Amino acid sequence: MRSAARLGAVQALYQMEVAQTDLSDILTEFQSHRLGGEIDGDQYTDADQNFFRDVVTGVVEGQRKLDPDIDAVLAEGWTLARLDAILRAILRAGAYELVSRPDVPPKVIISEYVDVAHAFFETDEHKFVNGALDKLAQTVRGDELSHGKPAR
Questions:
Q1: CA distance 36 to 29
Q2: Per-residue pLDDT of the chain (152 residues; tens, 9 = 90+)
Q3: What is the DSSP code string of 54-119?
């Protein structure tokens, strides 16, 4: 259910950026109609709605801090602003979890958002997501990655 929540969160963040949708409106729309609902004959997977809400709200409230953190791990000459809007949403959601969700192991976060990238792209964007989130994880949760357990 968290995987579906992550996918929904990325879709919601993308829609907020592209359509300039308000946070409260997007949360209502997704929680009422999209997460676990049926749209145009397609049944959407149930999602952990509290987790969905936490990721979307956390990204929106923390974006001013998250964006420079993401920019710092991108290859020289690249900025978050240069990326496709869906890649921005994926990286922001992954960065939020790495920074603010110590209950989720960093390797799980990276793997989940690589899977989300696969859902949207058929080319090598998943490698880009993997590299950027891995670098960020090394920066913010490196002890967990090197020892395989949460930092204390």
A1: 12
A2: 898 899 999 999 999 999 998 999 988 888 876 676 544 444 456 788 899 999 999 999 999 999 999 999 998 888 999 999 999 999 999 999 999 999 999 999 999 999 999 999 999 999 999 999 999 999 998 888 765 554 43
A3: HHHHHHHHHHHHHHHHHHHHSPTT--GGGS-HHHHHHHHHHHHHHHH-TTS-HHHHHHHHHHHHHH
Domains of the chain: 2-147 (1.10.940.10)
Instruction: Tell if the pTM clears 0.90, that is, is over it.
Output: no
